[in-house]
Amino acid sequence: MSAIGDLYKQADWKAEKHVPVIECPDTVAADEAFEVKVCVGKEIAHPNTTEHHIRWIRLYFLPEGGKAPFEVANLEFTAHGESAEGANAGPAYTHHQASAFLKLKTSGRLIATSYCNIHGLWESAKDVRVG
Prior knowledge:
Layout: E1 20-23, E2 27-28, E3 34-40, E4 54-63, E5 70-76, E6 97-102, E7 108-116, E8 120-130
Parallel strand pairs: 2-8
Antiparallel strand pairs: 1-3, 3-6, 4-5, 4-7, 7-8
C-alpha cells in the first residue's frame, strides 16, 4: 500500500493540464500582503464537466529550514454542471482558479496540490524570497 505522498504526480504545467500553477512575485517584502494566484490548466485547458473536473486546490507554505508546511488556502470547486436534469445540464460551473493574499516573515516554498476526480493528486512548488 502506498503512502499518500507517493500518490502525488508532478509534471511540467506547460505540457500537462492537471498541474497546479502558482503565480506570484519571486521576491516579496516582509509583512506586506501579496497576491498568489493558483490555477489548473493554464497552458492546456482542463475540462470542467460533471464527469471530469478539478475538485480542489490547496496551497501551503514551507518556511526555509522548516520541517512542516502551513496550509494557507483551501480552495474548493463544487459546481460542475450537475443538476436534476442530468450531467452537464446545471446552471453553474466553478472554474479551477483562485487567488489568496499572504504576508510572509521569512523566505520559503509555496506548494500547491490539486485533485482531479479522474486523474488523482498533483503538486507543484515555487520558491519565494523575502527581501
